Structure formats: C-alpha cells, structure tokens
Amino acid sequence: MSRAVIIGAGPAGALLSIYLARQGYETVVYERRADLRQSRVEGGRSINLALATRGIVPLIDVGALEQVDAITIPMRGRMIHSPDESEPVMQPYGNHVHEVIHSVSRSELNAILLDLAEQTDGVQLEFNRQLADVDLDGRRIHFADGGTSDFDLLVGADGAGSVVRTALAEAGSCRHRTEWLDHDYKELTLPSRPDGSHQLDPHALHIWPRGDLMVIALANPAGDFTVTLFAPRTTFAELTPDTVSDYFSDHFPDLARLIPDLGQQFADNPTGALGTLWADGWSHKDRAVLVGDAAHAIVPFHGQGMNAAMESVRALDRQLRAHPGDVETALHQFEAERKPNTDAIAQMALDNYLEMRSGVVDPNYLAKRNLALELEQRHPERIRPRYNMVMFSTMPYAEAQARAAQLNELLDTALNNPDADLDMLVEAIAALPPEDPLMDPNALSLA
Ligand SMILES: Cc1cc2nc3c(=O)[nH]c(=O)nc-3n(C[C@H](O)[C@H](O)[C@H](O)COP(=O)(O)OP(=O)(O)OC[C@H]3O[C@@H](n4cnc5c(N)ncnc54)[C@H](O)[C@@H]3O)c2cc1C
Which member of 109, 134, 374, 378 lies 3.0 to 4.6 Å from 167 by CB, making a disulfide possible if both were Cys? Predict the structure, then answer.
C-alpha cells in the first residue's frame, strides 16, 4: 500500500485525505496548527467565505453536503449600499432560483471535513506538526520538532506560503512568483441585534463600493456579519484606531452606526495582504505535488480561492485514478488540466475587484449585465453571464473566460448599435457544454 503524506489540514488537505484513502492510499495529514475543532472559542470572531458550485460538487462526492448545508446561509444577490444612505439596492445573481452563493464559516466547514477524514478508513490526522524541510530524493520530510516521516507521495496542501513549494523550487521543478496588490484588507465584525437577529438582510452579499476602496459583509448563522474592508495600503497606513470611526462615518455612514467598537476592532484585528501566486511545475517526478492555494493562490474578489482549491483536489483524484501505477504521468496531467484554468480564475478574480468596487454602480456595466441576463433567458442554450459561469457551473474556468470575452464583445456591439440583430449575433456563440453530472442545481437547500 502506498503512503501519501499531506501537508496542511485546510480545506484542500482535509478533503484530499478522504479521496486518497478511498483510492487505497495509507494517508497521513500533518498540520502545523492545533486541531481547530478543539480550540473553537465561544463568542470569538467568525470568519466566513462564499461557497459555490465548484466547492459543492466535491462535498457531494465525499458525502459532506448534508452537514455543510446545515451551516450555510444562501445569498441571492449583491446588496449595493450607496454613500447617500438611500435604500440599498439588490442585484440578483441570476435568473434561476438555484443561482445563489452560500455564506459559510471557514472553520466550521473545515471541521466537518476533518471529522469526515477522521471517520475514513486509512486516514490519520496529526496536529501541531510543522513541516520544516523536505528530502525529495530520500522521500522523507523533517518537522520543526525534529521528527521525520517517510512518503511515497507527498502533497503540499500547505497554502500560499507553501514549504513544499519551496522544496520543489529548490529541486528545479517549480518556478513561482507572487504578484502583490497594493490594496490590503481587514476583517471586522458587525454584531447581531440583542435578540440575536441580523442587522442587515442575511440573504445578500452586501457591498459598499467606493471606487478605490470597498467594504463587503457576509452573514453568519449566529446573527453577526463578517465585514471586510479592502483599501489601498496607503489608506491603512494613515488610519488609526482613533480616526477609523470618522473614516467609516464619511465613507460608509450606514455601516458605521452598526459597529460601535470600530476603533477597538481596528486595533485588535490584523491587516492582511492580497496576492496572486503564478506557479508552474506543480510536481516533482512521481513523488510530490502541490494542490490548492499552494499551487494557485488568488485574490478573493471572485469568492473562488477555496472553491478552486476543492475543484483541484477532485481533479488530482481523477488523474491518479486514470493512471494507475503511473503517478508521474498523473501529476503531469493534473497540472496540464488545471493550470490554464487556475490562471483564468486568477485573472478573472483580479478583474472582479474593479467590477465590485466601481462596476456595480456604473450605468454601462448595469446595462450590459441586464442585457446579458435578458439574452440568457432568450437563448439559455448559448448565453450565460460570466459571473454565473464561474460561480454556478463546473465549466472549465478558461472556457468561462473565453466565452465571457465573446459575450462582452456582443454586448458592446448591441449597446452601440441599437439596430443590431441580437439573435443573429448570438447564433455565432457555440452551445454551452453539458454540466458535470454530479452538479445538482438544488444541492444546497435555499431555506
Ligand atoms: C479575505 C479572504 C477572503 C476569501 N474569501 C473566499 C471566498 O469567499 N470563497 C472562496 O472560495 N475562497 C475565499 N478565500 C480563499 C480561501 O480562503 C483559500 O483559497 C483557501 O483557504 C485555500 O485552501 P487550502 O487548503 O489550499 O489552503 P489553506 O486554507 O491556507 O490551508 C493550508 C493549511 O496548511 C497549514 N500549513 C501551512 N504551512 C504548514 C507547514 N509548514 N506544516 C504543516 N502545516 C502547514 C496551515 O496551517 C493551513 O491549515 C478568501 C481568502 C481571503 C484571504
């Protein structure tokens, strides 16, 4: 029996352990942090993210959907808050009732996957084990605590700062660079009302678009919201716990009133950097491979980093099964399949920052978006808006990107030429590909 060693028990590592054990690997996951299931602090900050179809399909695969369903909140569209404090405006994500994304606590989702991994025959989890060094020739890893472990297959699911990736680069297999944004982020909490209810509509992704900066908020089941401020680094450099309340009152007045302890939270919570990892050479011979953020970390503006990581895990499982006894080919094929697609989502995530912080209130953008939704209704076999192809389908990202460029050209033509024959233009677009058979539009309940 082959021994697979996975570094990192985040969403990618925990999920992959289940797939690999089901293939017959003796699987060990080493995680540098303590077991998050034992260190959950009551009343602590709850950080959430958006789960969409590409993350849901693997959850169906491993039988985790029902449990995850119980901890999600569906978001049906973007709720746009303007600076003049007029009534917020809802922009639904799509024409169909299943076109919703799901707010979910990162740690709760991770905990469900860890429980499931632990219950899977052939999976062993070890916490407080930090990888320090990799001997690729000797197929052995070294931990910071001095211990070692041997492997047949080593998987780096150790996130954007991957130590396994560094080892692959030192061996000459991997080339990588991180392109940092000059915008940073800070997560804050908007508390629930005293009776535990939400202060804003929980079934929307709230956005305060302000050109060069923006705030978003996603609901948590406990009644609070995770609020994230994205702003130029220079803005963060100028803000202090004493000035942040005035700053919020100027730019996001409705929100400022709902977070009484802004200054304290601003002082307590870290500021994070945002970057895109461009890496190629994700594997080394027949023995080591990167997956998830370790291979393709992206900026969070399309809500796809974890979704893409989980989709990659599923692709790696499929390639290993497709090449029994030839791991080296499987690892090559995995990168050949995924790299064009993860490059595409990396670029679309960067593009989406502009769309979120200014596009959503631009009349030209809104005209295009409405026309795209109208065309989808008239030609559902050919037309899907870009956001919907990315979030609510399993179409390869690169195809979604190419189709979106084609659609964008069509929309420009249509908006500039009121006499254009739209139906004829649509005929030039190829029919949409069939969906992943596992994709069930009603997979997560909308309750
Ligand atoms: C502000 C923000 C918002 C986001 N919002 C979304 C969203 O809405 N939707 C979405 O899909 N994605 C979102 N993401 C991205 C998402 O968080 C990541 O893509 C996802 O967590 C990647 O999973 P992973 O398992 O590959 O890596 P990680 O989650 O980073 O997990 C890596 C694990 O490896 C462990 N590790 C690291 N080094 C070592 C070592 N040397 N030894 C042992 N263990 C190690 C770490 O402790 C960690 O547990 C967001 C990210 C940010 C920053």
Answer: 134
Domains of the chain, start order: 3-73+105-176+278-354 (3.50.50.60), 180-273 (3.30.9.40), 357-427 (no CATH)
For residue 374, what is the DSSP state? H
Chain segment 233-291, per-residue pLDDT in tens: 999 999 999 999 999 999 999 999 999 999 999 999 999 999 999 999 999 999 999 99
For residue 422, which amino acid is it? L
182-200: per-residue pLDDT in tens? 999 999 999 999 999 999 9
CA of 366 to the centre of ligand 1 (A): 33
Pocket-forming residues, ligand 1, beta carbon under 6 Å: 7-13, 30-33, 49-50, 130-131, 157-159, 163, 185, 228, 272, 292-293, 300, 303-307, 309
- What are the φ and ψ backbone dihedral angles of 350, each rounded to 5 degrees? -65, -45
- H helices present in 174-260, as ranges: 233-238, 244-251, 253-256
The whole-angstrom separation of Cα 173 and Cα 168 is 5
C-alpha 292 to ligand 1 mean position (Å): 8
Sequence-distant (≥ 6) Cβ neighbours of residue 42 within 8 angstroms? none
> Which atom number of ligand 1 is nearest to the Cα of residue 49?
8
Whole-number Å distance, alpha carbon 407 to ligand 1 midpoint, is: 32
